[in-house]
Amino acid sequence: QVHLVESGGGLVQPGGSLRLSCAASGQNFNEYTMVWSRQAPGKLRDFVAAIGWSGDTHYIDSVKGRFTISRDNTKNTMYLQMTSLKSEDTAIYSCHANYRRRDWSPPYDYSGQGTQVTVSS
């Protein structure tokens, strides 16, 4: 059983940066593929980025070069460094964990409650 808690969201101006964190309780964090998704108002949830237990990373095209996903297995924490933020990045960002799965597709084994990111001047 894994409990995920996101933090780091907030209001930022266009062009600004934020770092999201996803803290995981439980054991075997290093055996999970970890995922960030987001859901904008009135839209479906979208995949944003994923990181496998070996550190391989994957991104949706719209965030490549701007977002960086990482993990610290010693702290049971995953991060999403977001730079050059745009208004279209405004959404609730959620983290997810898939146990011993190499894919990053839903349905996810575990999910957090989400953190709001608002990009606005």
Comma- or semicolon-separated keywords:
four-stranded antiparallel β-sheet, 11 strands, 121 residues
Task: Provide structural commentary.
The chain has no helices and eleven strands. Helices cover about 0% and strands about 50% of the residues. The chain is globular. It has about 120 residues and is mainly β. The mean pLDDT is about 95.
Report a brief summary of the structure.
By secondary structure, the protein is an all-beta fold.
Spell out the blueprint of helices and strands.
Blueprint: E1 4-7, E2 10-12, E3 18-24, E4 32-39, E5 46-51, E6 57-59, E7 67-72, E8 77-82, E9 91-99, E10 110-111, E11 115-119
Parallel strand pairs: 2-11
Antiparallel strand pairs: 1-3, 3-8, 4-5, 4-9, 5-6, 7-8, 9-10, 9-11
Structural class category? mainly beta
Number of helices: 0
> In oligomeric terms, what are we looking at?
single chain
Q: In this structure, how is the largest beta sheet organized?
A: 7 strands, mixed
**Helical content, roughly?**
under 10%
Overall radius of gyration: 13 Å
What share of the residues does DSSP label as strand, in percent? Answer: over 45%
Average pLDDT level: 96
Q: Which stretches are low in confidence, meaning pLDDT under 50 for 5 or more residues running?
A: none
User: What's the helix-strand series?
Assistant: EEEEEEEEEEE
State the distance separating the first and last CA atoms.
Answer: 40 Å
